[in-house]
Amino acid sequence: MENKAKQTGKPILMRLGIGLFAIGMLAVATVFVMFAAGLENLPVWLSAAAGVITPLGLLLGLIALIQEARAGKHG
Length: 75
Known about the structure:
mainly alpha; single chain; 3 helices
């Protein structure tokens, strides 16, 4: 029997990591554009999203890759 994650393509953890990383990068780009436009008082939630969501998505993606590599090695 095949694993359900292999049938649908990428594992759910990888999809979540990619999504969070993309949202975080969008927040980083938004902060950069707003700062370049001369705005100094940027929203705290936007800066926090740029600083937290991007590395969290990267971490989840790396964890998913490690799990996939270990599963391929043993299975």
